[in-house]
Design goal:
The protein has 18 helices and ten strands. Strands 5-2-6-7-8-9 form a six-stranded mixed β-sheet. By secondary structure, the chain is α+β, with helices and mostly antiparallel strands. A hairpin with a 2-residue loop joins strand 6 (about 165-170) and strand 7.
Length: about 475
């Protein structure tokens, strides 16, 4: 039953998209070399489908507690047996983002709980869905371990890229696991002091042959999207289904702060206009309400974040539905949103003082909407400069239920900026950190994040803890 005030053409729901028991669909496709108008090989043999496929990861709950749980599970699997102690160390941003968000099916928050549950559940094959079905027995045992001071989670003093290290002691020995750079990237396993697995990150990167964002040409990428064989990106349908489903739950059940359902009610009571902008805000916020409050429904993530996945899915799906766009157009818009979000994240960092959902994913979403509005390549590129000129300073103060109001604002910004960009707005060189070339502006944003806001991140951490 749809209780929202705008039920017409809610979203695309093609059948037979989700492959049972196989969430991360393995699809690879090589594009031939494409030359720029100047003859340069700016995009050389880009495996764009590889990048989209690797990013197409389902997550149950916020990915920071999930990463802690996954590391603890991997450490436990090396020895198994009866748990004695669980010790975890994380980078400051994992710690910041993981403490305030509810773990699915538990109605409780905390990294200690995530570590305890992960070591009890095991099952690393579930990947970022490790908390998809938390049994009461596991929850009860986890709480007892915490009460007995057998679970310790500490932040590392030094700021580092995404990092989680877990050591689990049982009556059969000690297991160790390390996750680096992305939330599900297990790079090291150890059993009773002996290494059993070590992943060379640099070698792995060279073999992946994904997009090289350091040499990325935005305009050429957007034009490349037009040549995508749509059969090769049908797996992007799953994210539309999953993320719209959790948004619908948020609208109907009003979890967390109920930001999305409150907007929906204001529309129903004619306190807000029933226009596309407000519909985008309501559905996007509702999905975040549900996710951040621990509703036991999965989401499709983007660049390792469920909220970024929500941002790069829902505003596009609502726009496509309202504008009667084809499903093929929606899939291409999603491809643009995902890749550009990853591009921005490459520069600002996977976890940083800048809010990824409000900045990186809003750029991706706005570019995707501009594509649906039939914007030109130059107009879609303009979206990036326009959003950076507007909200580059939005900070991340941890993952928590109030993230819904940030996503509400970001979703509105994405739509409004797309409209303005398609109608000729392009903030020009000399306005703050905006320079003549958009790629350089993105580099400036990265410098702002990595250098200028390092102290900001430390201050946020100090205030919170």
């Amino acid at each position: 039953m749809d209780q929202s005030p705008f039920s017409r053409r809610v979203y695309f729901m093609p059948k037979n998209i989700i492959t049972p028991g196989r969430r991360l669909i393995q699809i690879s496709y090589n594009f031939k070399e494409l030359k720029s108008e100047t003859g340069g090989m700016l995009l050389e043999k880009i495996e764009i489908i590889n990048t989209l496929k690797e990013d197409n990861v389902v997550a149950a709950g916020c990915t920071e507690p999930v990463a802690v749980g996954l590391a603890a599970a991997a450490a436990y699997e090396q020895v198994e047996g009866t748990l004695i102690k669980v010790e975890v160390w994380t980078d400051p941003n994992i710690y910041k983002n993981g403490l305030g968000v509810v773990i699915p099916g538990t109605q409780k928050a905390g990294l200690n709980l995530a570590a305890a549950l992960g070591s009890l559940i095991g099952q690393t094959d579930k990947n970022l869905e490790i908390f998809s079905d938390v049994k009461y027995d596991f929850l009860n045992k986890a709480q007892k371990l915490i009460e007995q001071d057998k679970v310790i989670v500490n932040p590392l003093d030094k700021k580092s890229p995404l990092y989680v290290e877990a050591i689990v002691s049982t009556d059969k020995g000690t297991g160790k696991a390390i996750i680096k750079e992305s939330h599900d990237n297990i790079t090291y396993l150890e059993c009773n002091g002996k290494p059993v697995y070590k992943k060379d990150i640099n070698t792995a990167k060279s073999k992946d042959q994904k997009i090289n964002y350091s040499e990325f040409n935005i305009a050429e990428f957007i034009e490349l999207v037009e040549s995508i064989d749509l059969k090769k990106i049908q797996f992007l349908n799953e994210g539309i289904q999953l993320n719209m489903k959790i948004a619908e739950y948020g609208l109907n059940k009003s979890p967390g702060f109920g930001v999305g359902s409150k907007i929906s009610n204001l529309i129903a009571n004619q306190k807000l206009p029933s226009d596309l902008s407000n519909k985008i805000k309501a559905w996007t916020a509702a999905a975040c309400d549900a996710r951040m409050s621990g509703v036991n429904l999965p989401v499709m993530s983007c660049s390792g974040s469920g909220n970024q996945g929500i941002m790069t899915t829902i505003p596009l799906a609502i726009t496509a539905s309202e504008l009667d766009c084809t499903h093929d157009q929606l899939l291409k818009a999603r491809a643009i949103a995902i890749i550009l979000t990853n591009y921005i994240k490459h520069h600002i960092g996977n976890l940083s003082a800048i809010c990824g959902g409000a900045v990186a994913a809003s750029i991706g979403a706005s570019a995707g909407i501009a594509y649906l509005l039939k914007g030109s390549t130059d107009q879609i590129v303009a979206v990036i400069d326009n959003i950076i000129a507007n909200n580059s300073g939005v900070v991340c103060d941890g993952a928590k239920p109030s993230c819904a109001i940030k996503l509400m604002t970001a979703a509105d910004l994405s739509y409004q900026t797309a409209l303005l960009s398609v109608n000729g707005l392009h903030i020009s060189c000399g306005n703050g950190i905006i320079v003549g070339k958009t790629e350089k502006t993105v580099q400036n944003l990265g410098q702002l994040s990595r250098e200028g806001m390092e102290k900001t991140d430390e201050t946020i951490f100090k205030i919170m803890f």
